[in-house]
Amino acid sequence: MRTQPYTTNVLSVFAVSAILTICGEVSAQTIVPLHQQRSVNTFLIVPQCLDKTFDENAAEGFGPFDSHVETVLGCDSGLGLGFASQHSQIGHSFMSASGSGRSEAAGPDHDVIHAFGYSIFQVTFELPSLSRFTLDGMMIAEALPDANDDVGALARLWEGEIGGNLVFERSIQAPPDGGINKHALEADGVLEHGVYVLDVQAGSFIDNDVPPDRSGQASFDFTFDVTILGDLDGDDTVSTIDLLILLNSWGPCNHCEDCQADLNGNCTVGIHDLIILLGNWG
């Protein structure tokens, strides 16, 4: 049985100590972008027409990126098409994007046509504080039968840099016999302070002879949300209001899944949750 006056006194000491000893505040920005490759790309080679071409567009800053490229190359003996699009944003506490890549090849002559369309969202960012992330979205890949071996999408979160510790990975390919595949992008967890890379890509690469005609398309659509552990009121900073919410929730949780102040997931709001909150103060 808990003794409320004693608990209140202990918590008061912690609260006063936190306010008096923590100097300054860190930025309210939960996600700090460092580097990026947000781009749309197409590339075509139609040997029958003795020609090749490409097109691309890339985000120059960390603001909203809204772009598409469409490239067509053909003659009486063959036709190639590449298309890529992306709409993406990087916010203080979220990243979101929808993108697609499509390619098509057609022609009466038996010759290989190369058609490529790709959308890339790759952002290196820093988390200043211990944080919780949630990824929610969808990947889709579809193709005509035997269209090619590379119509698909992938999503990866790396710790440190690409090739470092892989936090999660999801991928999808179009069915080899034609049709459509769908895969939900769902992941969540806790991330330590540090640098991470979110890498999401979708594209279609046709490298086959025609006829028959070839076609493939892949896409992604997701939101990646990050919350500082201890930010209980959702204002991207940990402050006195969050401390008061935690203190008001002190003790065993009535419903574990809805216990907002239970930061360490043990279905109780206690000293360990308080330490996490104070560690992310600012």
Task: Please write out the topology.
Elements: H1 4-21, E1 32-46, E2 51-58, E3 65-75, E4 78-90, E5 94-106, E6 111-127, E7 131-143, E8 150-159, E9 165-173, E10 179-191, E11 194-210, E12 214-228, H2 240-248, E13 251-252, E14 268-269, H3 271-279
Antiparallel strand pairs: 1-2, 1-6, 3-4, 4-5, 5-12, 6-11, 7-10, 7-12, 8-9, 8-11, 13-14
Helix pairs in contact: 2-3
Average residue-wise pLDDT: 88
User: Helical percent range?
Assistant: 10-25%
Strand order of the largest sheet: 2-1-6-11-8-9
Stretches with pLDDT under 50, minimum 5 residues: 1-13, 15-27
Order of helices and strands: HEEEEEEEEEEEEHEEH
DSSP E strands, number: 14
Q: How far is the first residue's CA from the last residue's CA?
A: 34 Å
Shape: elongated
Describe the largest sheet.
Answer: 6 strands, antiparallel
The class by helix and strand makeup works out as mainly beta
Radius of gyration: 25 Å
Q: What's the number of structural domains?
A: 2
Total helices: the number is: 3
Q: Approximately how much beta-strand content do the residues carry?
A: over 45%
